[in-house]
Amino acid sequence: MIGTYFAIFIIVVIVLSGLFTVKQQTNAVIERFGKFTSIRGAGLQLKIPLIDKVAGRVSLRIQQLDVIVETKTKDDVFVHLKISVQFLIQKNHVYDAFYKLQNPHEQITAFIFDVVRAEVPKMILDDVFEKKEEIALAIQRDLKQAMLDYGYDIIKALVTDIDPDEKVKIAMNRINAAEREKIAAQHEGDAQRILIVERAKAEAESKRLQGKGIADQRREIARGLEESVDVLNRAGINSQEASALIVITQHYDTLQSIGSDTKSNLILLPNNPNAASNMLNDMVTSLVAANKVQESSHENETKKPKK
Q1: Among 2, 89, 90, 205, which residue carries the largest CB count within 10 Å?
Q2: What CATH topology corresponds to 63-164?
């Protein structure tokens, strides 16, 4: 009786050992005595106990491999490039992916190194940053062609990081900073030049308006003096007496204006009764002398024989 139970137990264990499950998006490779037999998909599967075995499981999901490659650019700068490759095993080529490559990650890494070290040395450092998309496309193109024979499909290749030597980065930052300082100095110089030009224009305009104001002021003063002389002449005062009266009036107006300002300097002017008359006589004498000199010069010009 005990032997029967034991035999049933052994049979149940053997049958259960032939059952196995395969996860979604995974294939199981079945071998019989070391020889490939079949590929099983997701779900509950059955194999011959003690004869068949699961040699391995292959994921059909997209995988990513990150590789850091050190290489030299055309201008002799060493850089580290981080390459991210996304790939998957083709469902109809699970046998090739499982049996043809011993270590697929190492194989993909070798291809990435080969492509990067063939492309980057053709570029200077600045071009590596600007043309990283071209590098990624070259990796994807060459790697896809090489890995299709092994059942692998390359979905995408990305250059996710470019890291030059620390001294090179410091030098690049210094060059960038110097260039920005140069541009800032140029803008500052332009601003100073514009400010100087505008200030000169404003000063010239101010001088022009000031001169125009002085000219208008003197014109109005002369017109006022002329009208004053006409009024005095109509009152029976001759021109000389009228001129003396105007001069003495302006003289006292000036003294009053100076005295009303506490911060004005002291000016000593002749203040006797004949001061205005003497001042006027001096002015008339100067004008007469100037007229005589002008008339004499004009007569000499007219007497010269014409050639």
Answers
A1: 89
A2: Tetrahydropterin Synthase; Chain A (3.30.479)
